[in-house]
Each structure stands twice: as C-alpha cells, then as structure tokens.
Amino acid sequence: MQCLMKILQKFKKAELKIYLFLVTVMLSIIIAMIYIYIENEDIRKRYSPLVEATEEIQLQSALAHLWFEELITGDTSISINQVYEYLELAQWNINAMLTGGTNKDISIIAIENTELQNEIIQIKTELKNYKIITKKRWEKKKY
User: Fold this and answer.
1) How far is CA 92 from the centre of its chain?
2) What span, in angstroms and rounded, lies between the C-alpha atoms of 122 and 41?
3) Residue 13 — pLDDT band, cuts 50, 70, 90?
4) What are the pLDDT digits (tens) for 38-63?
C-alpha cells in the first residue's frame, strides 16, 4: 500500500510539473501576443498615414497634370486655380511627411529616415519645378 502511495505522489509531482510548464508556456504566448498587438498598433499609427499621404501626393499631382492638360486644350469646366489647389494639396502632404502635420482627415508623423527624407525632398523639388512650368505654360497660353 505504501508503495502505491509513493507512486501516486510521484505522479502528482509529475502532473504538477506538467501543469506549471503548460501555464508558463501559455503565459509566454499571451505576453508575446500582447507585445505583437502593441507593436502592430504603433506601426499602424506611424506608417498608415504616411502611405495615405504618399497616395495623396500621387493622386493630387496626377489630377493637377491631367486637368491642366485639359485646361490648356480649351476645357472651360476647370480653372487654373483648381489646378494650383491640387498642387498645393500635394505640397502639403510632402511637407507633412517631412515635418509632421495634421489636418481634418489625417495626422502624419514626420519621417526620420534620412534616405527617405532625401527622396521626398527630391519629389518636393520636382513638384515645385512642375508648378513653375505649369505657370509658364499657362502664361504663354493666355497671350
């Protein structure tokens, strides 16, 4: 009988070790999931607005270009000021990506990566040049 009791106690100790091991594993998994969730939220808050701003720059630049081409060929349904507004919206998004910015739709955290900043500055310069060319072409068309 005593031998049977010793065997049962060993099983209880083994079961306790297994339970403790399982609880430890489960807690580790839960902690890892919480950490991943927190990191995911940080990434989403930081980079989602930057992606949206990039899309806006592309969209507004394309709209400015396309509508200007329509305007220059004689379409009177749009004014040159609307074309400039598209360019200004693209410019705002570029500046927000470089320095941070908030409007009614989005809050953008400034990019810290120097390589990306340099690329955005290059895009900013190209957009300024496009605006200058647009103004020159419009002035030539007017006269």
Assistant:
1) 15
2) 30
3) confident
4) 999 988 888 899 999 999 999 999 99
Helices in 1-143 by DSSP H: which ranges? 2-72, 80-99, 114-142
Q: Which pLDDT score, from 0 to 100, does residue 86 have?
A: 97
Which of 110-141 are b and which e, b meaning 16 or more Cβ less than 10 Å from the residue's Cβ?
ebeeeeeeeebeebbeebeebbeebeeeeeee
CB-facing half-sphere around the CA of 7: CA atoms within 13 A: 4
User: Token digits for 58?
Assistant: 């592309």
Residue 46, number of CB atoms within 10 A of its CB: 13
Q: How many CB atoms lie within 10 A of CB 52?
A: 14
Residue 108 to residue 100: CA distance in whole angstroms? 5
3-state DSSP assignment of residue 108:
strand
